[in-house]
Write the structure tokens for this entry.
Amino acid sequence: MLNDLNALLVILSPIEEGTLPVTNGHLVHGAFFSLIRASHPDIADKWHNNDPYRPFTLSGIIFPSHLCQNRKILINKNSEYSFRITCLTEEAINIVQAALTSSSILRIQNIKFKITGLNTKTHKLTGKTNHDFLYHKWLKNNSRQSKKIKFNFHSPTAFKAGNINMVLPDIKRIFDSLTWRWNFFQTSGNMLPEVTASDWHDTWIISHFNLQSRILDFGNHKQLGFKGLFTLSLKDNSEDAKHIARLGCLLADYAFYAGIGYGTTKGMGMVYVEF
């Protein structure tokens, strides 16, 4: 089975110096689409019109912390920068890799960067697997189970309910957003059921959190979100609850690639998960 889930870092070296705003996921999003459009214009149009079901996520610029001053990132030629891409389909992986190898220059806002490499496996935010492996790992292996799920939200995360932004983590909203993505992108018929709020809350309990609110300034609008640590512990270890417990573990594992919540193609909802 080919790996249809992939997370990589694009390594950047500045050609020019200047500054970028701390909130820059939307700028990376624009630069990414310019890259895709140059090599695959039809795919770029398709992906642009497919929101919220786009087969990738993007982070903002990842940079050394000492280069942040007054909510600006200092871009200098002696420092290394990167951003993260995850792909949720085999097609997306092939297109992204082709686009990254066809061009060595990326312009983010008004600053040119040289793409100097791809990190695919030596950073904790990189990796690869496939939907089938995760499905069998958690739902077909009866001995596989975790009593804790530790979410580390690296970037601000929020949910949408109609026109309302929800800026606190909720067990059902977390798992529902992942279930929808999974069912849209999996290709082997391993559909996941939607679970009621009561069943989720009867199985998992919030045992620890250390969260901070963050405001993202996208220029034409601002978005409030949360980031930090959030731990779920198994509340019910009965035989009846084990399937829901394993389903939660599967979705949390998937979150590393799919992201959580709203705006995952513009730097939001990036999460690292430990069991």
The domain at 131-274 is CATH 3.30.70.1900 (Alpha-Beta Plaits). The chain is about 30% helix and 35% strand. The longest helix spans residues 239-258.
